[in-house]
Amino acid sequence: MLHVSAPPPAGEQGFAADPARQPLWDGNDNLARAAGGQRVRAVGDVFTTTLTTGATRENHVVAFEEGRRIAWEPAEPGREPPGQLWVWELEPVDPARTRVVHTCDWTRLDDETRLPRARATTAERLQASLARLAAAVERA
Known about the structure:
The chain is an alpha+beta fold. The chain is about 25% helix and about 35% strand. Helix 1 crosses helix 4 (about 125-140). The longest helix has 17 residues, at about 125-140.
């Protein structure tokens, strides 16, 4: 999904790289909370979130470029990620606007029990996340 918003990229990347803020703009209504102090700084970082179901996910950062891109693969605690990938890409359009692309790729997901939830991640839900992120940054 693509969204062009008014805030500069530093504002949105700061939100995207701070897991404690993610439940504020999760358009899937899947995230209940994430502890503070987990800001992503590099590939290989792992941050933990709690889902609305009460389940915990360890999110393994597989791509990170400050102010430009963050991607992670969620997994159950202590397990390898089963193949779902969340990506946020940010590109300055001009000094006042940022192009934001949000992707959820579950084409490599090999855990049959997670496929129904992955399939529920529709374009509308990704767009809702983009809109909520933009609104949160504009309020900050």
